[in-house]
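Lecture notes, continued. The same structure-token format from the folding unit now serves as the input rather than the output. Read the line below as a description of shape only.
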């Protein structure tokens, strides 16, 4: 585990206290972890499952079909 000394403004401190109280956490360190995890799931790209990556590589190696008019070929409106 990594220790970090951080400076917070008053509003950030209040938000961490609210997270801590709402979730019944023991300390602000746990509240920071919750906030970071929420940011990660909301804003960062998810990791792909290895099986999905393998399937994409297989599809990438397949020969493609050239289509002049996609809508006509597949009877789309």
């Amino acid at each position: 585990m990594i220790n970090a000394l951080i400076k917070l403004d008053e509003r950030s401190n209040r938000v961490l206290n609210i997270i801590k109280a709402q979730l019944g956490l023991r300390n602000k360190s746990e509240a920071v972890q919750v906030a970071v995890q929420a940011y990660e799931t909301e804003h960062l790209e998810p990791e792909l499952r290895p099986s999905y990556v393998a399937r994409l590589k297989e599809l990438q190696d397949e020969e493609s079909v050239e289509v002049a008019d996609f809508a006509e070929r597949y009877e789309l409106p």
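Point for the exam: The mean pLDDT is 91.
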